[in-house]
Amino acid sequence: MKIKTKVGLLLLLFISAFSCDELDEITEIDITQDFTRTFNVSVQEDSEGQPQSFSSAITLDITDNEDIQNNIDLIQNISINSITYEIINFSGSEDAMLTDGQLTYGTNSITVSNINLEQSDIDNTIYTISDTSGFNSLANDLENDQVVNMSLTGTVNETPVAFDVEVTFDLTVTIDVL
């Protein structure tokens, strides 16, 4: 009986020492993960020398992370810390420019900078999306569906060109284990 009393007293002391919010924070786990996806773009030569539009698609699936997949029903929040992208594997006309670039998911779009493709690849330039206004809607889509289809569209002024756009999504997923 003395053990039950001591355990009960200790439990009462523990509960009174921490508020409900503090206890809730103790039961939360943050998983921060970079998800990298690659858009493959290939635009054939235009015989009239006109700018050409392109479109490429990817799927962002946060359940690729085993910890997230194992706790899918316990996701409390998802936040996007940053989205960066880099032009890689460029081949084609040296003056080719990417213009009017849009990263689209659902009904939302994020503008992609105008880029000299060859120079960007040579310099290994990493671009950060500074307009974070669409981050919350993307985070909400991922929280609700865990999988989001995305497309990259734009125009190139010179053809033929082929390049990849490697996009990295830095996410924090908060899981509430209780």
Q: Please, what is the average pLDDT?
A: 88
Which CATH architecture would you pick?
Sandwich
Radius of gyration: 23 Å
Number of domains: 1
Globally, the shape reads elongated
Number of helices: 5
Distance between the termini: 29 Å
Protein architecture, described:
With 178 residues, the chain is of the alpha+beta class. The protein has a single domain (29-176), classed as Sandwich (Jelly Rolls). Helices cover 26% and strands 50% of the residues. The strands form 2 sheets. Strands 2, 4, 5, 6 and 8 form a 5-stranded antiparallel sheet that branches. It has a 4-stranded antiparallel sheet with strand order 1-9-3-7. A hairpin with a 2-residue loop joins strand 4 (97-105) and strand 5. It is elongated. The chain starts with a helix and ends with a strand.
Keywords:
four-stranded antiparallel beta sheet; five-stranded antiparallel beta sheet; 50% strand; alpha+beta; elongated; 5 helices; 9 strands; Jelly Rolls; 178 residues
Topology:
Layout (H helix, E strand, L loop, with lengths): L1 H16 L2 H7 L1 E16 L8 E10 L4 H5 L4 E18 L4 E9 L2 E5 L2 E2 H7 L2 E3 L6 H11 L1 E10 L4 E16 L2
Antiparallel strand pairs: 1-9, 2-8, 3-7, 3-9, 4-5, 4-6, 4-8
Summarize the structure.
With 178 residues, the chain is of the alpha+beta class.
